[in-house]
Structure formats: C-alpha cells, structure tokens
Design a protein that fits this description.
Elements: E1 28-30, E2 34-38, H1 45-52, E3 62-64, E4 67-74, E5 77-86, E6 89-94, H2 101-114, H3 122-127, H4 132-141, H5 152-161, H6 167-181, E7 184-187, E8 190-193, H7 198-202, H8 206-210, H9 216-230, H10 236-241, H11 245-253, H12 260-270, H13 282-291, H14 300-308, H15 314-325
Antiparallel strand pairs: 1-2, 2-6, 3-4, 4-5, 5-6, 7-8
Helix pairs in contact: 4-15, 5-9, 5-12, 11-12, 13-15
The protein binds a DNA duplex (13 and 12 nucleotides) through helix 6, helix 9, helix 12 and helix 13.
DNA sequence: ATCCAGGAGTCCG
DNA sequence: CGGACTCATGGA
C-alpha cells in the first residue's frame, strides 16, 4: 500500500537549493510506540514552548508540565502525539496505538518542519557580533526556532483572524471556529482538535461566523479562502514551488482579505523562505520600541534600515522579537 | 470612555 | 501610486 502525502500537508523536506544557509540532514529513530528525532546542538525546546504557550486560549495544542500535546492528521488519519525532550533528542510519543510506519515517518517530517530543525543558526548567532538588537535577543533566547504551521489554510485563516484585533480576542475567535467546525478527538478526559478543513468552512454562510463574533468582512475572507483551497485554485504544493518571497507574496495578496501583512505573516509561518518579514506587524514595532527604549513606535523606514542587517534571517529575528514581548 | 489591537478594501485625486 | 475613509469588535 502506498501512502500519498496530501497536497497541502508536509513541506518537502529537501531544502531550497539556492539558499546559502547551511542545513542539517534529518535524523530519527523509530521505536514503534515513539520516535526520537535529532535536533541541532543549540535547539531549545523550552524556548519554543514559551512561544507555543503564549496563550492559555490556544485550542490546537496543549502544554502540560513542559510536555506538548497535539492532534495531527495525515491524509485523513488522525495521530495524537506528545512531545518532550529526552537525552537531547525530541521524543514524540504516539498516545493511542502506534500508527503504520509511513505515518511515523510523516510525523518525524512534521516535527522537522514545525521546529525548523533543518536550519543551522550559526550565522544568525554570528550577527550578534555586529548587531546589538540580535545580541540582546540571542543572549536571552538562544535556541528558539521559527515555529511553523504546516497547514496553509490554518496559517492564512489565523492571520486573517488576527487582523486589527488584540491577540487575546484573536485566540478566542480561533477557539470558537475550531470548536465549532474542527474535528475533535477525546483522549483521557481531554479534547484535541484539528483546524477545520477548507471543505467544511466553504459550506458556511457569513452568518454562521458572525455568531462566533467574526466581523462580516472576516467571515467573508475566511470562507473565500476556504473555497479557493477546496476548489484547488490555490494549493500549497503549487505555492511551494515559488521560492522568491516577493513573487509568492504577490500571489497571496491577490486573495481577498490578504493584504501585505497577512501575506508576509503567512509566508513566515508556513513557508521556508529566509527573507519573509512582516514589516507592518505591531508586535515587531512594539518589541523594537521597548528594546530601543523609544518614545514612539519606530517608523517603517527605521525598521527597514534595521532589517537590512538581518538580511536572510528576518524570520528568526521576527520570532525573537515576538519572544521578547512574552517576558 | 477612549484608544488600541500581530489590517484590508475602497475611493479619490 | 499615496493618503483618507470605512468597517468592526473586544481589551485594557
């Protein structure tokens, strides 16, 4: 039996050839009921957990006693896992019965993508020698990775939901959306959810989402994106072929409801593109305002100047800046 | 109450 | 193209 990788799932594990950055090879061991994945020497599971644990309203995973729980789905097959560090390796445990071997490989690849384990951050850390902002961030949060979202529908929806509202309310909206329309699995008195599929959301009316306190616009945007993906007008597989940040952005911005910020954010969260940078993000300028002790938020021009020093490492810098906000 | 929040579309010159 | 206006809802 051949297991196909769904089109919009699992980023190709091969890395962008034109990238000048070093990459690590994936390494993992299969122990049936769990797998162990090699991680870079500097990898900090704890720092990634701070990012992933930034909201107590997060519905798509749980963190308990430093252990991470999430429901995965490969081609219709649900896999409930927990993740923890064990002897400098990432240990992923299958909480229900161990899935067939191809799915254990997919799980390893999923983690590799989610924690961006392929990127060698040596050059990023070296930037700290010449950039005081990077130095401050790296000193504090070394080992934090760019935590990715595999599902492009989820990534775009989450960005749309987050437009122009505070993060707390954004998490509330996501929770309502997922609880209302996402698949649910129960395990030991806990519930775990999948992000809703484009198919399910495409069937909704604007009114359905208005009841969840979505604005009319956001409801239209989310349903619209669902239709584009459901009909195959947009596929992640096709988007992955575009390695140029600007060109990828141009394609995303054509989607109704996706402006500059949403496109930048989606690329950062869902694609392995090294100059993705949501320059209009209020989180970024709030962090910079705080770090640089500015009286007012920095202008786009000022951020552009700063970010030139970060060329090729904008995604990492963005995550480290966001991390600074969670102190 | 007032301002802001991990904005986008539209219109107008 | 760039700016002003509109939409829209909870949090602090």
């Amino acid at each position: 039996m051949v297991y196909e990788i769904a089109q919009n799932k699992i980023t190709d594990i091969k890395f962008c050839k034109e990238s000048t950055q070093k990459t690590f090879e994936i390494g993992w061991k299969d122990y049936e009921e769990y797998i162990e994945i090699d991680v870079p020497e500097d990898f900090s599971f704890e720092q990634c957990m701070v990012y992933l644990g930034r909201s107590d309203t997060e519905i798509l995973h749980k963190i308990e006693k430093g252990e991470f729980y999430k429901l995965l789905n490969f081609d219709g097959v649900n896999i409930l896992i927990s993740i923890a560090m064990n002897l400098k390796k990432l240990k992923v445990t299958f909480l229900e019965k161990a899935p067939p071997k191809p799915f254990r490989l997919l799980t390893a690849k999923y983690m590799w993508n989610m924690f961006d384990l392929g990127t060698d951050l040596t050059q990023f850390y070296k930037l700290a020698e010449t950039d005081s902002i990077i130095k401050l961030l790296v000193d504090k949060y070394k080992g934090l990775r760019v935590v990715k979202t595999d599902d492009v529908f989820e990534a775009i929806c989450w960005a749309i939901i987050g437009q122009q509202i505070n993060l707390k309310f954004a998490y509330t909206l996501k929770k309502r959306l997922v609880e209302s329309y996402g698949e649910r699995v129960e395990y030991k008195n806990n519930e775990y959810f999948l992000f809703p599929t484009p198919f399910v959301i495409s069937k909704l009316e604007v009114e359905d989402l208005k009841h969840l306190q979505f604005t009319i616009r956001k409801a239209e945007y989310v349903i619209g994106v669902a239709n584009l993906l459901k009909d195959g007008i947009i596929t992640k597989k096709e988007l992955l072929l575009e390695k140029n940040c600007e060109k990828l952005k141009q394609r995303l911005v054509q989607i109704r409801g996706v402006g500059n910020w949403t496109a930048d954010y989606t690329i950062l969260k869902c694609f392995d593109i090294k100059d993705a940078f949501p320059i209009a993000d209020v989180g970024i300028y709030n962090a910079l305002k705080g770090i640089l002790k500015l009286d007012e938020k920095p202008s786009i021009n000022e951020i552009e100047k700063l970010s030139k020093n970060w060329n090729g490492w904008q995604p990492n810098t963005t995550f480290y800046l966001w991390r600074w906000l969670y102190e």
